[in-house]
Amino acid sequence: MRRPTGKLTAVSYSCRTGRIQMKAALKLMTFCVLAGATAWQARATMLPSACGPDKIQFDVKTKSVPLALLTPEPGKALVVLIETLDGSFLMPPSTRFAIDGQWVGANRGNSYFVISVTPGEHRVCSGWQGALSEVRDRSDMSPLDAQAGKVYFFESKVKYTGQTTSEGAFRFKQITDEQGQERVKVSKLSSSTPKQ
């Protein structure tokens, strides 16, 4: 048996060079995978600043109730938050709503809920609630200059565009009083509680 002499032969040199190149390639691949995962995670949880933390999700229940007169408390404004579906969803998505960076509730399907706010400048946010990043990317915000005694209507309209819950177009905007009253007439009242 021959002892290594410490001299590099062409074969041993190419093996060492191959190992070094392989290690470098593995390090580069690992870096790319980690960087991509971090970027995807950051993108998946990016919401407008008017929304709340993405980790807060809601259980939503809806029920048909007789339409009540929408009257604000004295010294307050009333905000009516509506989800409207356009198309037929096998499982309708839930839409969360936030005011000034705090989630205040959610709707599921053609439904609405009402919240009182103090007069002044507010930011209203709406976004789909879901585990898929393409669902979470569907969020938007709108400014509100609330005046005491007034009622404001905001609608998240979800249009069915495919086969699954995550395949839909999302639009959020303030709507007129007349449009809001019409939507509320044909919608269920929702109640929601944060999931534990």
Q: Outline of this structure?
A:
Helix content is 24%, strand content 40%. With 196 residues, it is an alpha+beta fold. It has two domains: 1-44; 58-194, Immunoglobulin-like.
Description:
It is a single chain. With 196 residues, the protein is of the alpha+beta class. It folds into two domains: 1-44; 58-194, Immunoglobulin-like (Sandwich). It is built from three helices and ten strands. The protein has helices at residues 10-44, 133-136, 177-185, and strands spanning 58-63, 77-86, 94-99, 102-108, 111-117, 120-129, 139-146, 151-160, 168-175, 188-194. It has a six-stranded mixed β-sheet, covered by helices on one side. The longest helix is centred in the N-terminal third of the chain and has 35 residues, at 10-44. The N and C termini lie far apart (69 Å). The relative contact order is 0.20.
Write the layout of secondary structure elements.
Elements: H1 10-44, E1 58-63, E2 77-86, E3 94-99, E4 102-108, E5 111-117, E6 120-129, H2 133-136, E7 139-146, E8 151-160, E9 168-175, H3 177-185, E10 188-194
